[in-house]
């Protein structure tokens, strides 16, 4: 976080993808921390947002993610 903010004069944001099977304790710690986080909605874990037979995010997911990040930055 410090490197991103000082060296690159940018905002440090952690994106928590809905597909990660994170322990609730870890999620709660992130929410309580001073780390700027975006928790993606569960629908990002559906087939509509994945490359078929691959599992990686598709163009639809990337486009929506870009909008989510842009809106998050503009709000903060």
How are the SSEs ordered, and which strands pair?
Blueprint: H1 2-7, E1 13-16, H2 24-32, E2 36-39, H3 59-75
Parallel strand pairs: 1-2
Helical/strand content category: alpha+beta
Form type: globular
Q: Largest sheet at a glance?
A: 2 strands, parallel
| Helix and strand pattern | HEHEH
Mean pLDDT: 88
- What is the tally of beta strands? 2
**Ranges with pLDDT <50 over ≥5 residues?**
none
Strands side by side in the biggest sheet: 1-2
Nearest-angstrom radius of gyration?
14 Å
Number of helices: 3
Share of helix, binned: 40-55%
The end-to-end span amounts to 16 Å
Describe the structure.
- The protein is α+β, with helices and mostly antiparallel strands.
- Helices cover 42% and strands 11% of the residues.
- It has helices at 2-7, 24-32, 59-75, and strands at 13-16, 36-39.
- A two-stranded parallel sheet has the order 1-2.
- It is globular.
- It starts with a helix and ends with a helix.
- The mean pLDDT is 88.
Précis, in short:
This protein is α+β, with helices and mostly antiparallel strands and 76 residues long.
Structure keywords:
single chain, 76 residues, alpha+beta, two-stranded parallel ribbon, 2 strands, 11% strand
């Amino acid at each position: 976080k410090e490197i991103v903010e000082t060296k690159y004069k940018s905002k440090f944001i952690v994106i928590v993808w809905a597909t990660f099977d994170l322990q609730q304790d870890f999620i709660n710690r992130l929410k309580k921390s001073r780390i700027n986080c975006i928790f993606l909605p569960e629908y990002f874990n559906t087939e509509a947002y994945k490359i078929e037979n691959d599992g990686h995010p598709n163009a639809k997911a990337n486009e929506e993610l870009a909008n989510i990040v842009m809106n998050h930055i503009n709000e903060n």
